[in-house]
């Protein structure tokens, strides 16, 4: 690893200068002459039949160019999941009934914002209001009002079941019977949102039978496929251009109606149409994360070793399938990956309610599940008189273990993470001290908590693989064509580092053309935690392919075998006779002269689990899920004011096995960002709703942490993968798994500080204070 | 974006402003820093047909009136108040209360007058009303109350959230209202009605001219706390402010002013708790009893997802803490130990 110059180094961000100087182009920055403003009419009701829509007054308003409803669409459905079991289930506009507040009913294009707003107000819709359901337990009850039909393959007598995941191995009943201790606990999570700073923006321009689109996304190829499909256009007629994206965290993957509406309105008016979602719309009508109920029954032996575990997840899935049927699959994975569970039974239900459709949100179920499991693990440890580190060590997976789905954890560094985290925080010396101490002065109490987690590194979902092209220029510099999208995570930087390494080029010699569906190869996108692994290795292959071509031509020109050649400073140099050398410029000229004009273009492709035909079954979990599993252990130090219940994260330690870190600085950025997001999750953020309406529709009342709330965030890695040039980069996920263990660690730390066990998020002052008062009453009575 | 047409005027003097307000009546909106008015116009909580800007009028610097009272022009930016040596020396609690407002950007734009005249807040009200809560509530001239469907018309159970008003009331400050023909002066306390529909007594043809803060009594001290979830860029969960004075013996409480803000339609004085403290030694028990009494006598509304039960618990703890601080400062001498951190 010592001879690496670019990968493994904290190289400066490729996109940094443009972003800090304001030159970076986001979708809102793209200006086209004659652009119309699009605006969407949304449902004021959570559940209602649409009896009549009259757009005539809106159409007659001067300045209005077009009004569309579901009748102007081809009725083609789309969905976050599109499989035979879960076929597309959403239309772009409501047809016959609305199922959540804010659902799209119509869209207008007008000459300016004011006219557009007035036009939306002139559309008349007559509704017949239906009973609405917001709690999944009420919604799944037999005989409840039907929001959407229950999935035909769910044979239990429940209503409103969007989907179910179930799997088991061993014999849980026998396991529980043999267990020394069995605990059953229930944990609830709350509604949070992604908090991307850039709102959804789409500019669409239909020109010469081609639809050009600039939109906030997490992967332009996914957007293209879904948009082309609902518009019934060939992919070649839809071009999603590259723009930077100002934060996503899961909230910009799927097709959104404003993207369809801007496109369709442009096609009908022959004018560019822009739609910008207001922050209020995003909070009240767009997609948020998924509140889960986790029922967890766990049996252990005397040493706290898991004997059996039964878990039931109920997802408040909103009004369409969305990613609700994915999260109930993923929760199984987040449960089975870190600990060995000999007997296991899992059921996950995704239940329709009259909330907005759900999206993935960083961690996609993992924080909710790890919060439950890691909290219960501490409860079990305490009952057994075992410390929190030992009980985890007794259950954590070893390297090279096979997982129940026939994945392998390879060089899993979980136990290394545990050891290092405990050591670096002096965990066992700190843990339990506050609760043991008598008569502490003041009202502030410190507590320490630990949690662990595992996250997958990419799986198979459309478009399944990434391609990269490296074009050598005559002067020896290179242009990289990649579909990868830099959503802030640093994709452009990492890809440049890899190409620089493979071709011995400086970062400045490399220019990228990215995420344009017409000019770059297809890419998996920035949303399944696999981009560095998949696109990174496609980049390595492409640069390697170009390098091999350079070497081949150079070997011919220099009359020495390829094995005698090395690359340095855009030169090919003979190892045996360093005076024998050619510049890249000379080699490329020779290639054009002697290889039928070949200017040297390298191609590379990568796909995770290349021998697997497709993704695992969402319903049964069968099939391989991922090639690489990342592991992490996190420790939280919190401070609680026992008089007010106010709590804050003081310090976080993240110890992770993220494989080979291509850019340690970017890894650190991910760690800090996730700690910040998790402390918002724990103590601050909640989308407050009433009857399906959102009450806090702005940044003021949805309290994301500010820089002043950020805790000290330290990290350490346990690098268990060896890296060699020419081998695949065994990078692992590091961009979303780290929001999970730290959440559980914070809950465990609140317990450590106060004795208050939290069964639900967020950890509000009111909840902590009420817990403290109950403890007082217990002590007194 | 403000999606309706309105006029904008920029008179050159306060008198001209007052004259225009008299002519325009309730259709006018007074634009100073704009941090409260403009978002509310975007949300159509307020839809003035004419904005009368104070942008052409310069604020008078903080100064002392002949009666010894500190005078702060209503057009003074909050950032100037928090950073003013004069204000910090004469009434540190005032500076402190300006410092905890919003964020630096907000304080650079927002003015004292604007902060004191800010609109009440309610999660249902502070929305775009595009597709949810579309029917206007009482406050917006309509016929319903979303959080309290059984409320009578003209009853808006919302929360007045100025961070500064409780501090000024605790300090015994006055406010000057400027009209076209006459000015009037009253205690800041009397400026607030405690009625959500019309939180202040300001008439449509008036604007706030200045705030006057009296010199502190001898042996006095202050305490102030704004409870929030994230500590900044946030309206308060609870604001508590207190100013106390000790008698000549330095042991007995001679005066106490206790104010709770951000939990109901206006800031509330806890007069019962104040009088229980006066004449007694401010022991921890007496302070705890006063905190408890203050919470009991003030009106609390659930707001911004906080329950009344928790708001009261939070207010009581911080009242106890700020009263201890206030008496501690009173013992070290007037105005001492009170600079902003």
Characterize the structure shown.
The complex is a heterodimer of chains A (about 775) and B (about 350). Chain A has about 775 residues and is α+β, with helices and mostly antiparallel strands. Chain A contains 20 helices and 28 strands. Chain A has three domains: about 15-25 and about 460-605, 2-Layer Sandwich (Aldehyde Oxidoreductase, domain 4); about 30-130 and about 195-250 and about 250-285, Aldehyde Oxidoreductase, domain 3; about 290-460 and about 615-780, Aldehyde oxidase/xanthine dehydrogenase, molybdopterin binding domain (Aldehyde Oxidoreductase, domain 4). Helices cover about 30% and strands about 25% of the residues of chain A. In chain A, the strands form seven sheets. Chain A has a seven-stranded mixed sheet, sandwiched between helices. The model of chain A has no long low-confidence stretch (mean pLDDT about 95). Among the domains of chain B are: about 65-115 and about 160-215, Uridine Diphospho-n-acetylenolpyruvylglucosamine Reductase, domain 3 (2-Layer Sandwich); about 220-330, CO dehydrogenase flavoprotein, C-terminal domain (Enolase-like, domain 1), CATH 3.30.390. A five-stranded antiparallel sheet of chain B has the order 4-5-8-6-7. Chain B has a four-stranded antiparallel sheet with strand order 9-10-11-12. The model of chain B is unreliable at about 335-340 (pLDDT under 50). The chains are: A alpha+beta (about 775), B alpha+beta (about 350). The interface of A and B includes residues 278 and 683 of A.
By CATH, the architecture of the largest domain in chain A is named 2-Layer Sandwich
**Overall pLDDT level of chain B:** 95
How many distinct helices of chain A?
20
The percent range for helix content of chain B is: 25-40%
What is the CATH fold-level name of the largest domain in chain A? Aldehyde Oxidoreductase, domain 4
Helix content of chain A: 25-40%
**Biggest sheet statistics of chain A:** 7 strands, mixed
């Amino acid at each position: 690893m010592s001879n690496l110059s670019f990968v493994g180094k904290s190289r400066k961000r490729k996109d940094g200068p443009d972003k800090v100087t304001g030159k970076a182009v986001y979708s809102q920055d793209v200006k086209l002459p004659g652009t119309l403003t699009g605006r969407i009419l949304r449902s004021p009701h959570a559940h209602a039949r649409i009896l009549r829509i009259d757009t005539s007054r809106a159409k007659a308003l001067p300045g209005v160019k077009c009004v569309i409803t579901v009748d102007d669409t081809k009725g083609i459905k789309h969905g976050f999941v599109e499989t035979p079991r879960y076929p597309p289930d959403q239309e772009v506009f409501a047809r016959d009934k609305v199922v959540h507040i804010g659902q799209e009913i119509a869209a207008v294009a007008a000459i300016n914002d004011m006219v557009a707003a007035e036009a939306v107000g002139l559309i008349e819709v007559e509704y017949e209001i239906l009973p609405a359901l917001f709690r999944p337990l009420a919604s799944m009850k037999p005989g409840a009002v039907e929001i959407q039909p229950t999935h035909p393959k769910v044979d239990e007598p429940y209503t409103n079941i969007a989907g179910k995941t179930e799997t088991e191995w061993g014999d849980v009943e026998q396991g529980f019977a043999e267990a020394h201790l069995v605990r059953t606990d229930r944990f609830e999570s709350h509604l949070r949102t992604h908090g991307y700073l850039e709102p959804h923006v789409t500019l669409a321009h239909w020109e010469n039978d081609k639809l050009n689109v600039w939109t906030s996304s997490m992967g332009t190829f996914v957007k293209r496929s879904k948009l082309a499909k609902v518009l019934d256009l060939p992919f070649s007629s839809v071009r999603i251009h590259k723009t930077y994206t100002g934060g996503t965290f899961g909230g910009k993957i799927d097709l959104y109606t404003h993207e369809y509406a801007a496109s369709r309105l442009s096609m009908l008016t022959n004018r560019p149409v822009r739609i910008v979602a207001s922050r209020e719309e995003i909070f009240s009508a767009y997609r948020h994360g998924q509140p889960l109920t986790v029922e967890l029954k766990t049996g252990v032996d005397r040493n706290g070793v898991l004997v059996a575990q039964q878990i039931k997840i109920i997802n408040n899935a909103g009004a369409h399938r969305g990613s609700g049927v994915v999260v109930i699959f993923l929760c199984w994975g987040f449960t089975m990956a870190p600990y060995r569970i000999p007997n296991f039974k899992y059921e996950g239900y995704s239940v329709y309610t009259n909330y907005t459709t759900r999206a993935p949100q960083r961690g996609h179920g993992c924080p909710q599940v790890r919060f439950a499991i890691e909290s219960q693990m501490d409860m079990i440890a305490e009952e057994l008189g075992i410390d929190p580190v030992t009980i985890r060590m007794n259950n954590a997976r070893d390297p090279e273990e096979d997982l129940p789905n026939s994945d392998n954890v390879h060089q899993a560094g979980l136990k290394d993470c545990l050891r290092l985290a405990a050591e670096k925080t002096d965990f066992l010396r700190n843990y339990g001290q506050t609760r043991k101490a008598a008569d502490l002065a003041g009202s502030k109490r410190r507590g320490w908590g630990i949690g662990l987690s595992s996250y997958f590194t990419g799986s198979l979902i459309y478009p399944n693989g990434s391609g990269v092209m490296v074009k050598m220029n005559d002067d020896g510099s290179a242009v990289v064509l990649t579909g990868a999208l830099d959503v802030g995570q640093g994709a452009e930087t990492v890809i440049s580092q890899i190409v620089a390494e493979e071709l011995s080029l400086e970062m400045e010699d490399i220019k990228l053309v990215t995420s344009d569906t017409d000019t770059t190869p297809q890419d998996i996108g920035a949303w399944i935690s696999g981009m560095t692994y998949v696109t990174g290795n496609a980049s390595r292959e492409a640069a390697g392919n170009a390098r091999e071509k350079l070497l081949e031509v150079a070997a011919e020109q220099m009359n020495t075998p390829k094995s005698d050649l090395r690359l340095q400073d855009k030169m090919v140099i003979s190892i045996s006779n360093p005076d024998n050398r050619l510049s890249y410029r000379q080699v490329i000229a020779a290639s054009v002269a002697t290889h039928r004009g070949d200017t040297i273009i390298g191609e590379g492709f990568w796909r995770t689990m290349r021998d697997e035909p497709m993704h695992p079954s969402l319903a049964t979990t069968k099939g391989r899920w991922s090639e690489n599993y990342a592991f992490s252990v996190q420790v939280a130090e919190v401070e609680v004011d026992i008089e007010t219940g106010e709590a804050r994260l003081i310090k976080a330690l993240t110890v992770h096995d993220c494989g080979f870190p291509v850019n340690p600085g970017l890894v650190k950025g991910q760690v800090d960002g996730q700690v910040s997001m998790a402390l918002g999750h724990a103590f601050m953020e909640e989308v407050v709703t009433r009857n399906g309406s959102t009450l806090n529709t702005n940044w003021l009342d949805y309290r994301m942490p500010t820089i002043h709330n950020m805790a000290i965030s330290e990290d350490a890695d346990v690098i268990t993968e060896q890296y060699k040039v020419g081998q695949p980069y065994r990078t692992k996920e590091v961009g979303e798994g780290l929001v999970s263990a730290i959440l559980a660690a914070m809950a465990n730390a609140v317990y450590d500080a106060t004795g208050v066990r939290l069964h639900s998020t967020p950890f509000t002052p009111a909840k902590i204070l009420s817990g403290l008062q109950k403890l007082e009453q217990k002590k007194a009575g | 974006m403000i999606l309706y047409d309105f006029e904008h005027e920029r008179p050159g003097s306060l008198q001209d402003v007052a004259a225009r307000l008299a002519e325009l009546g309730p259709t006018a909106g007074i634009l100073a820093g704009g941090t409260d008015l403009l978002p509310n116009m975007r949300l159509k909580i307020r839809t003035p047909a004419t904005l009368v800007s104070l942008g052409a009028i310069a604020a008078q610097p903080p100064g002392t009136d002949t009666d010894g009272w500190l005078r702060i022009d209503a057009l003074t930016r909050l950032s100037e108040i928090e950073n003013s040596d004069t204000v910090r020396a004469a009434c540190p609690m005032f500076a402190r209360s300006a410092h905890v407002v919003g964020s630096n950007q907000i304080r650079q734009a927002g003015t004292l007058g604007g902060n004191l005249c800010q609109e009440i807040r309610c999660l249902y009200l502070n929305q775009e009303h595009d597709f949810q809560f579309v029917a206007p509530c009482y406050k917006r001239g309509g016929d319903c109350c979303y959080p309290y469907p059984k409320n009578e018309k003209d009853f808006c159970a919302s929360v007045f959230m100025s961070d500064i008003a409780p501090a000024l009331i605790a300090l015994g400050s006055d406010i000057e209202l400027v009209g076209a023909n006459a000015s009037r002066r009253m205690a800041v306390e009397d400026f607030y009605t405690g009625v959500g529909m019309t939180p202040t007594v300001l008439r449509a043809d008036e604007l706030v001219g200045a705030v006057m803060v009296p010199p502190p009594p001898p042996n006095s001290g202050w305490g102030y706390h704004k409870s929030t979830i994230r500590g900044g860029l946030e309206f308060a969960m609870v604001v508590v402010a207190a100013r106390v004075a000790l008698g000549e013996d330095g042991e007995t409480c001679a005066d106490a002013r206790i104010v709770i803000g951000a939990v109901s339609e206006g800031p509330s004085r806890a007069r019962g708790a104040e009088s229980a403290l006066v004449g007694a030694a401010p022991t921890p028990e007496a302070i705890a009893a006063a905190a408890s009494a203050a919470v009991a006598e003030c009106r609390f509304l659930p707001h911004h997802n906080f329950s009344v039960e928790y708001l009261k618990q939070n207010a009581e703890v911080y009242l106890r803490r700020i009263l201890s601080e206030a008496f501690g400062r009173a013992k070290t001498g007037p105005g001492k130990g009170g600079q902003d951190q």
